[in-house]
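In the current project phase, we have settled on a layout for protein records. A sample record is reproduced below.
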Amino acid sequence: MDLLRDPIPRLIRQISVPFALGMVFNTMFNVTDTFFAGRLSTDSLAALSLSFPMFFLVLGPGIGIQSGASALISNAIGAGDRRAAVRYQVQAIVLAVAVAAVIGSLLLALLEPMYRFFGAEGEVLAGGLRYMRVIAAGAILIVLSQVLNASLVARGDTKAFRNVLIGTALLNVGLDPLLMFGLEIAGVSVIPALLETGTALSTVMLQGLGVVYLIRRGRRIGIYEGARLRDFLPDRRTMRELIGQSAPAALDILIITLGSFVINYFVADFGRDPIAAYGAALRIEQIALLPLFGLSTALSTLAGQNNGARRLDRVDESFRVSVRFSLVAATAILTPVLLLAAPLLRLFTDTGAVVEIGRRYLYIQGITYFSYILMNLSNAVLRGLKRPAMIMWIGLYRQVAAPFVVFPSLAYAARMGVDGVFWGLALVNWSAAVFSFWWSRRTLARRRMVSDGAQVVPAAGYSSTR
């Protein structure tokens, strides 16, 4: 696979399809945890639900560092600087370990007051603490499982992470209930029932298995070739670059988590049925979006390498082809989801009022659906061009600032009720998507002007006559 010369449409398919498949299995991993927690008790299910934002405090920095490191590595590879690519990956590992250690330690100290802030008490509080204490202790493995993927994605290799996600999802189906409920043979307890601790242990153990696999895969293809022990000492300049690229992506993940609380706050004001409908419909919507995340990963990788090689014409082509592909994919996915909206919602609930509210939400989100894709593709280009700062500001606008103006205006002032919140989501997300698209096109155009005005030095091994 040559990201600087091979046809763009073929490269996008080769990179995006494995990643999208992996994300489907990643969702299966999370559904497994939720399913068995529900089988244990309602309190256990509530404990894991309340743990979601705290888990993202661990996962978010890992995704951010992986995103930032991948952008820097892909640009270095495109520029023919293999030594810099190795340095960025090694330093990203150092940063990941440091960040995970700090976050894990803080969580262990603050977990109980955080749960109490969300109103947890009794068995819900106890279950949440059992779960998150293990997750916090294993934070380094969880963060590393993301960061070790940076160099692979930067090279267009999404099959390795796909293998990790598929393997861990399948193993979790067996390991999760085994550790949660225990194993008893002939009246003898072989494995004690660890309850929520067992679910968390399964997650951490499988993340550790993924870390081992990714390290071996990286060593086999030369990702760490030439790395020396002293390269693992923090380097101020490299760390500054990594943090500059990673912080906006990490903060955006945290802002999205905050945004989910904002939406829940407004929807819950209209009663139990709307919040239940929103929760069920959101699961359907998120699954429908999963296959399209592969496109943004492919675009970010292609933009990074070709930006490093100063092949901005290929960055532009990658952007345009990705948008076309996403339009076709969105139509193929949305059509059955909207036609089968009510039956899909009945998989989660038999309450007629909940199904009706959820159906209206999905119909409105059918209009909003492509805005999420357009934002992700625009953000992918900005990451590839090493200009990610605007991603964070757009996130603050659409997740926090705009909702507090738009949602009450439509829901209360315009007397639209909970549908006003749903239509508000459409308005906020489309305005953010249009701005994201315009900003990314503007940034790319300016980058091309600078490149055209400079003396272009071809990347090592590249000949313009080919």
User: Anything to note?
Assistant: The longest strand covers residues 188-191. The chain has 16 helices and two strands.
